[in-house]
C-alpha cells in the first residue's frame, strides 16, 4: 500500500516549475504513482491474486451480491450477442445468395452453415453458463477468448480464395471482405473482454499468424497482394492493442486508487480502534474524527493547488472547520444555549431563561444547604378541594364537552365546577366520541378506572393539577383537529395522545426539576438528575396502567403497544422546559431549514406530536385574557409556594419565586416574547392553518402587549382576573378554585363556548 508522506506531495518549487502546464498535477502524480502500482508491466495483471480476483468481481459482479452478474456486464453481453448473431446471419444469408447464383458450391455452403451453427450453439451455451455459474462468470474471458479464436479461424478459412483451395473447387470472384469482417469482430471482442490487454494482444497476434499462414499456403492471390492485406490488418490490430493497453491500464489504475483509499481508511479506523479503549464511540467523537479527516484533505488540496485565491479559500475553510470541531468537541451545540450579549433580552429574563429553560447542571450558582433534610412530598400542601354538586344540566354539559378540540378558549374549569372532575369527564367523552373504546376493546369500566386514577394521582397544586392536564388535552386536540395534520393521525396516535396529554404532569409535586435536583430529592436521585419530573410522569402513567382494572392497553397488539408507549414517553419527555431550546432548535431545523418532515416515518410523526404537546403545555399563554390571567395567577402561586420552602430552608430563592419581590407582568411579557412566540411561530408554520394563526398567534401578541402595558404602570403586585383584583397571592388553593365562579359571570363571549 502506498504510504502518503511529505515526499508524495508537491513542494512549492515543483508547483512553480510545472505551473505553465495545464496538466501539472497529473504529470507529477502519475509519474510517482505508476512506479508504485502493483501491476505487472508486461501482462497488465495485478501481482496479488486476491487483488486480481477483487478486480474481476468489480467488473463482472453485482455490487450488492457477488453471485449476480453486474448490470453493466449484462448490457455488454446483450450488445455482443446481438452483434454476433446478426454478424453470422448476414454471412449465412449472403452464402445462400451466392449459392443460389451458382457462385458457391455445395461444399462451401455446407461449410458456412455448419460452422455458423456450431459457433452460435457454443456462444449461447457459454452465455447460459456465464449467467448461471459464478465460477464460469469469473473465468468468462478464457472461454470468450476461445470463441474469438475459433471465429477468426472460421473467417480466415471461409475466405473464398482459401476455402476453394482447401475444398479443391473453382475460385470465382465473389469473396467476402475478410479484413473488414475480422476488424469489426476484433473491435467487438475488445468490448466483450473489458479491454483486457493480455487477451486482445493474444487474439490479435494469433489472428495475424493465421491470416498470413493460411493465405500464403492456400490463397490463389499473389504474395504481394497477401502481404499488402496483411500489412493493413497488422496496422489496425496494433492500434487496437495500444488502445486496449491504455484503457486496461487506466481501469486498473482507477481500481487500485479506490482499493488503496478503502484500505487506508480501514487501516486508519482499525488503528484508532486498537489505540482506543472505548469501543463504542459517541456521536461527538465520530464528528470530531470526521472533521480531522476533512481538515487533512483540505491541507493536501491546499498543497497542490496553484491558484492563490483558491488556496486562500481553502485556508479559511481549515480555520472554520477547526472552530466547528471545537464547538462539537465541547458539545455546546447540543447541551447549551447561549444568550448573546447584544440581544434584546434584559438581564432578569436572561437569568430566568437560564434557570428554567436550560439543563440542570451541578455547576449551578444555587447554594445547597448541606444540613437541610431531603425534600419529601409532605413539604407540599395536599389540601383536597371540596367537589361541589352538579350545578348544570346534562344537556348544557354535553354542549360544553362538544367544544373540546374545537373552541380554542374552552373553559375546563366549567367542567370541574359542574362535575367535580376534569380529566375523567373529558377523556371519557373523547373515547366515546371517536369509538376508541370499541376499536381497542377498552371497556367503560377500565377507561373510567384508569382516568379516575390518573385524575386522583394529580396533587392539589395551584397549577400542575388535573384541570391543567385536561386543558392541555383540549389544546393539543385543537391543534390536531383545526389543521390538515388530522389526516396524518390514526386511532392509535389519538389514543396515545389522549393518555400522554392527560398524564403528562401526573403526580407533579408542585416544584421544579431544579429544586428537586438541588435538594437531592429521591425523584432526582432515581432519574439521575435528567428530566426527573418528566421521567416520573411517564413511570406514573404505566404504574397506574399496571393496577388492577386500569390497563386500557390490555388488548392492544404488540406493534400498537410499542408504538403507543414510544409515543407517550417521547411526548411527555419533550415537555421538559430545561430542554426547550434544544427541542425547538431541532424542530425548527427539520421544519424550516430542511422541510423534510415525513409523516409516513414514525420517528418524524413522534417528533411532531411531541412538539404539539409541548406547545399545548404552555397553551394558556395564547388564550383570551380571562383564562390566561387565571392560569398565570395559578402558576405564580405555585412558584411562590416553592419560594416559601426555599426561604424556610435558607436557600437562595429561585427566579420569580419570591412572592415579596416578584414582577409578574414583566416576567410574563418576557416569557411570551422569548419562549412562547418563537415556539408557536414555527409550530404554526408547520400546521399551515389560517384559523390557528389568527386564533393563537394574534392572541399571543395581544397578551404580550397587555403584560407590557401592566409592567409600565408598575402593577407588578396586583393581578386582575376577569375584573377581579387580587391584592394577595398567598391564599389557599381552595380560594383559587373559587375564582372559577367569578369567570362564570364574566360577560365575554370568547371565554365560554356556545351551548
From TrEMBL:
Transmembrane residue ranges: 77-97, 109-131, 143-163, 200-218, 224-242
Binding site for Zn(2+) 2: 505
Binding-site residues, Zn(2+) 1: 468, 504-505, 617
Bound cofactor: record note: Binds 2 divalent metal cations per subunit. Site 1 may preferentially bind zinc ions, while site 2 has a preference for magnesium and/or manganese ions.
EC supergroup of this enzyme: hydrolase
Keyword Transmembrane attributed: yes
Pfam family name, one: PDEase_I
Gene3D superfamilies the record matches: 3'5'-cyclic nucleotide phosphodiesterase, catalytic domain
Cofactor: a divalent metal cation
Keyword terms, alphabetized: Hydrolase, Membrane, Metal-binding, Transmembrane, Transmembrane helix
Binding residues annotated for AMP, in chain numbering: 464-468, 505, 617, 668
Highest taxon above the source species: Eukaryota
UniProt cross-references to InterPro entries, sorted A to Z: HD/PDEase_dom, PDEase, PDEase_catalytic_dom, PDEase_catalytic_dom_sf, PDEase_CS
Matches recorded under PROSITE patterns: PDEASE_I_1, PDEASE_I_2
GO biological process: signal transduction
Active-site residues from the entry: 464
Single annotated GO MF: metal ion binding
Name of the protein: Phosphodiesterase
